[in-house]
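Still learning. Show one?

>
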Amino acid sequence: MKIIKNKKEFRLLWSLFFLMFSIIFTFFFFSNYKIEQVQAGTEDNVLGWAWSENIGWISFNNTSGEGGVNYGVHIDSNGIFSGYAWSENIGWISFNQTELSGCPSGVCRAEVDLLSHGLEVSGWARALAYGDGWDGWISLNGVKINGETQKFEGWAWGDFVVGWISFNCNNPETPDACSASNYKVETSFNFNWPPYKPQPVGEGETWYRCWASPQVALGTSISFNWTYLDSDGDPQQSYEIWVDGDPNFQGSKFNYIADVNATSYTLDLSHDEEGDWLSRLAWDNTYWWKVRVKDTGSGKWSEWSDPNSFTMNSHANPDPDFTWSPSSPSAGEIVQLIADDGINQSVCYNSSDTPIPCIGTFFWTLTGATFASTSNEYTKNPLIKFTDSGDYEITLKITDNVGFCTQPHQIQAAFPLPEWEETSP
């Protein structure tokens, strides 16, 4: 029995020795093997400690971990993580995209959503000492960064080997943890927010349908209006407009980028960046537009606004105009206003942009004059007379089934002609 006991003791000692040798060998081999690969440089902007009850402390930067090897985790300008963290119990933990392919689900790369003010972290990290049935994956969903304090919050999960990883002792689930150890992971990344998603102002579009330039369709122009709001107070640097007949903006479309601080844009189809869309919008068609904005601080684009639709009229608005005779009238003299002589002046249109007679309502507004004879404000070509000399504005408004337009003209009335009376010699 004594011999058997010695053999058991020998086997136990040998097992302990072999286990210690394996741990020491693995530690030194793996550490030396990774020295060149973990050179992260001084630009690493994540540091501090996370804690797992299963594997203990995890260092995110050699400046906080006091290691002899230069390692660290970094967040780039797009919010994507890279580099290595270190655990004395499971070795290197990689955040590099090249070592994260084949993750269990979702997007593999580790990243923080810079467009969201919640700064939620997603993706995966992986312990590189995985093996013997352990896959090493650590899900980062559930971790976020406080944009004001720049400290990580929340928990990651790494199956039953790693278990839950706390990134901050101040997590709500562990209210008294900071009294025992004031640990945290934090970053020096500058979280200057991109602008908020712009929203259309009012109905979103401002129409001018009375012969504006540039023409979207004959006689019509349209301006798009949106809000600009940036939580950091940075002014707008640029905007980009898309317009399309497809609400999904697939294929060719109008797109225009302007590096100006403005919250409206009057559509000029010659501005199309690709030059592959329309030269004129079609009557009675529905189109969609959306806009995104960039600020001067973060230099990042906002999300696209929700698409806003608008519908063109069935044809162009009237184009009123008129002349008068005599061309240099005097006060008290009968003057003929000519809005339509069958050849010139006012023009109306059909859906093919073909001129047609104006059969809508004519309406005149006079200053310094009165209607003469049987004429009134609705007469197409009325007679008027000026009550005194001076410069006066006469306005013609024509309304048809889609809308109206107005045309003012200044008319100068001279002094009344001298009265004379023929007498015999």
Residues 1-33 form one domain.
